[in-house]
Amino acid sequence: MDFFESQEKARRKSAVLVVLFILATIGIVFTVYALIYLLILTDAPNAAQAWLEFKGMADLLAMLGALILAIIGFGTIFKMVQLRRGGAAVAELLGGRLVMPDSANPDERKVLNVVEEMAIASGLPVPPVYMMDQESGINAFAAGQNPGDAVVGLTSGAARMLTRSELQAVIGHEFSHILNGDMRMNIKLMSVIHGLIILGLAGRVILRMAVYGGRSRDRRGAALPLVLGVGFILVGSLGMLFGSMIKAAVSRQREYLADASAVQFTRDSRAMAGVLKKIGAISQGSRLEHANAAQASHMFFAQGVNVLMTSLFATHPPLEERIRRVEPGWDGTYPVISDFPRSRVQTATGAPANEFGFSSLTREQYQGRPSPSARSAVQSGTPTAVDLTASVGRLDDVHVAHARGLRERIPPVLLDAAHDTAQAHWVVFAMLLSREQGVAKAQFALLDNIFGPALERKVADLARVELPRELRLPLLDICFPALRRMPFDRYPAFRSALQGMIQADGRVGLFEWALHRAVLRHLEPSFVPGRNSAFGHAALHQVVDQISLILSALAHVGARPEDTAMAFEAGANELRLPGLGLRSREQCGIQALDAALNKLIRLRETSKRDLITACATVIVADGQVSMAQAEILRAVSDALECPMPPLLPGQVAGA
Q1: On the CB side of 123, how many CA atoms lie within 13 Å of its CA?
Q2: SS3 category, 154
Q3: What is the 3-state secondary structure (H, E, C) of 449-513?
Q4: Structure pTM?
C-alpha cells in the first residue's frame, strides 16, 4: 500500500470510528433502559404490567437518555479541546518531559540523532522528543494531529536499554504511524473513549462527594447521591467496555503493518526482533505506570497496560506473534537480562563521540560521497515522474543512509546553532541572507530594528559558513524542535522578520518561498493551536487555475526559456484538464502560490497523487533535475501534506 492509499484508508477508518462511537453511545442508552426495565420487572406482578409502567416513564426516560448523550458529548468535546495542541498535549498527559534539542545526555543524544535522521529521510520536519523518565519498561509512541505538531515519546527504559539499531527500529515503527495517517486517528480515538467513560468518572466524583460530604445530612437525603453515583459508575463501565473493544478493533492489525514498515526502513529484522525480545525478557516489559497510560494505550509501540481477556481487549497483538512475524525461526526463548547492559554506540573508529549515537560515517562520506547502501542510487540517473511520486511518504534503508550522510555533512557550528533554542532563528535568517551587499544591508537593518544590533554579527557569522545547497532543507527541518521552543511573544517578531528578509530585494526566490511555506506550515500549529489539516473536498477540475499556477512556477525553475512551455505542456498532459494554461514568471509570486496551495490542500489523496505526478513530470521534462527544482517540488509536496524525501545522489544534476 502506498502513501496515498494509506491516507485514504485512514480517512475511511475515521468514518468507521464515528459509526462505532454512535453505536456504542446508543448501546449505552439502551442498556440503561434495559436495566431500568429489569428493575421494574422485579417489583411488578408480570411482564405486561412492567412494560406498562416502563412506557409510563417515557418522558423521564427521554430526559435520562438526553442527559447521557449530553454527558458523553461533553466528555468527547472536552477531550478534543484538551488535545488540540496535538502531540505535545498527549506527551504531557503521559508525564513526558521535553528533551532539549541540544541535550548532551548520551541516551537522549542517541535518540535525538536517530529521530533527526528518520525525519530527514522521510521528508518530515524533525518532531520534538519527549522522555518518560519514570517509566522503566520499553515503550514509545508518536502523537499529533499532523506532522507539524507531531512528537515522539520514549520511556527512559527504551532509551537506556536499546542499541542504536534497535532504536531505529522502534522510531521507524512510530514514523510509519506518522506517515500512514494513524496519529490523527489516535487523537480522535482518545476523545471518543473519554466521552464513553466520562459517566464512570462523574460517578466516582458523585460517590466521593456523597461519602465524604454528606455526613451532616439525613440518611434519606444521602441515599440519592449514592444511588446516582453507583449508577453512573455502572454506565461508565459499559462505556469502558465498548471503548476497549473499539480500541482493540482499530489498533491491533496496524501494529503488524508498522513492524513490517520499520523492518523495511532499516533492512534489519534482527533489530525489531531484538526490541520485542527485550520487552519479553524484563519484568516490567512494556508496561507503563502513569495513571493516564490507559487513555493512550492504543498509541504505544507495545501493550502499555494490563487488560483482562487480552484476545478481546488488547490493543496490540501478542508479543510472541510479533516476534515470529519478523523472525520466523525464533526458538521461543528470551535473552538474559545481563546480556544487554546499558547500550553503547560504536563507530568504526571507536571515537568518544559515539556515546551520543553518531553514525559510523567515514571521512569520505562526511565530504559528500554517498554511503555504501546509497551507491546504487548514484547510478540511477534522472528519476521518472512516477518514481518521484512513489517516493512520497516512503522510508527505506537507502534514504535513511542518505539522510545520515546529509546530517553528518552539516557543519558542526550550524548544527549546534540549529539545536539551540536561542540560536535556531539565527540559522533561518542566515540561510535567507542575500549575497548582494545592498540587499544584505537592508536585511540587517530590518533585523536591527526588530531584534537589536547584536543579532547582525551573529547572523553574519553563521552566513559565512559554507553550506551546500542540498543541505539547506535538512538543516531547516532540524531547526524546528528548537524553533518550537521560542517564547510565544517572540513568534510574531520572528515571522515579521522572516517575511521582511524574503521581500527585502523586491522579489521572492522559490527557495525563499519554500522556506517561508515550511516555517508557516510546521511552526504555526505550535503558536496557533487548533489549526488542523483540511479535509479533501475539491476535485481537480475545480482548481484548474491553481494547478496552472503551480505547474507554471515549476516550469520556470531551472529551465531554459525555450524549454519552459515544453515542460509545462508535459505536466499538463498528465492531467488532461481543460483550461490549463502557462502563467508568466511575474504571476507566480509568493502570495499567489500560497493562495493556490491553500486550495489545493483540499484535494483528496488520489487527486494529490495525480497533481504531484504532473509536477514531477514538469521538472524531469528536460531530462535532468536541478537542485532548485528538487527543492520546489519537495516544498509543493510538503504543502500538500505529502512528504517527499530528499532526492538521492545521482538523481539531481551536479549532486
Answers
A1: 29
A2: strand
A3: HHHCCHHHHHHHHHHCCCCCHHHHHHHHHHHHHHHCCCCHHHHHHHHHHHHHHHCCCCCCCHHHH
A4: 0.82
Residue 63, phi then psi, degrees to nearest 5: -65, -40
Rounded CA-CA distance 639/190 in Å is 27
b vs e for 587-616, b when ≥16 Cβ sit within 10 Å of the residue's Cβ? ebebebbeebbeebbbbbbebbbbbbbbbb
Q: Read off the pLDDT of each residue in 383-402 and give the average, rounded to a whole number.
A: 87
101-131 CB burial, b ≥16 within 10 A, e <16: bbbeebbbbbbbbbbbbbbbbbbbbbbbbbb
Q: Of 108, 199, 209, whose CA–CA distance to 159 is shortest?
A: 108
Quote the cell numbers at residue 33.
433502559
Q: Say how far apart CA 51 and CA 193 lie, in whole Å.
A: 33
Please state, in angstroms and rounded to a whole number, the distance separating the CA atoms of residues 438 and 506. Answer: 12
Q: Are 181 and 10 in contact (CB under 8 A)?
A: yes
Q: How far apart, in Å, are the Cα atoms of 487 and each of 47, 89, 335, 496? A: 67, 17, 46, 15
Mean pLDDT of 92-98: 94
What is the per-residue pLDDT for 310? 58
Q: How far apart are CA 111 and CA 609, in angstroms?
A: 33
CA–CA separation, 209 and 469 (whole Å): 65
Helices 437-451 and 491-502 pack at an angle, to 10 degrees, of 170
The larger pLDDT score, comparing residue 35 to residue 472, is at: 472
User: How many residues in the chain?
Assistant: 655
Residue 167 and residue 157: Cα distance in Å, rounded?
11
Under 8 Å between Cβ of 233 and 190: no
* Positions marked active-site: 174
Following CA atoms 53, 56, 57, 58 in sequence, which dihedral angle do they give, to the nearest 10 degrees?
130
> Looking at per-residue confidence, does 483 or 11 come out higher?
483
Query: Which sign does the torsion angle of CA 589, 595, 598, 604 carry?
Result: negative
C-beta separation of 644 from 122 below 8 A: no
Quote the CA–CA distance of 65 and 77 in Å, as a whole number. Answer: 18
Q: For residue 324, give the C-alpha cell.
A: 515470529
Cα–Cα dist 64/426, whole Å? 59
Structure-derived torsion over alpha carbons of residues 231, 73, 528, 602, reported in degrees to the nearest 10:
140
What interhelical angle do 424-432 and 437-451 show, nearest 10? 150
- The Cβ of residue 134 has, within 10 Å, a number of other Cβ atoms equal to 12
Which residue blocks in 123-163 are alpha helix, DSSP H?
A: 156-161
* pLDDT tens-digit series, residues 273-328: 999 999 999 988 899 999 888 888 888 999 888 766 555 677 888 889 899 988 99
CA distances to 128, 151, 175, 292, 456 from 96, rounded to whole Å, are 11, 11, 18, 11, 37
